[in-house]
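Please supply some protein, with fold tokens.
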Amino acid sequence: MVQMYFHCSNTEGTLIDRYGTAVANLTEARDRAAQIMRSMILTPGAEDWRDWVIHVSGDDGEEIFDLPFTAMLGKPH
């Protein structure tokens, strides 16, 4: 298991994941990123999530991959 951090950002700022989550591999990290995205998208409010990105990094702070929220939402028509 490795500790991964899931930071979310848009053009106005960044939400820092200070605790992280222990994951077994990159597939589990991607699944966790998708779970976080779903949770944020389903939170009631007026936020337009299409310009948000989730940045996944390891203990050393090095970004491993990022995943735009549009991967889940799709692009506007």
Summary: The chain has a mean pLDDT of 92. The CA atoms of residues 57 and 64 lie 5 Å apart.
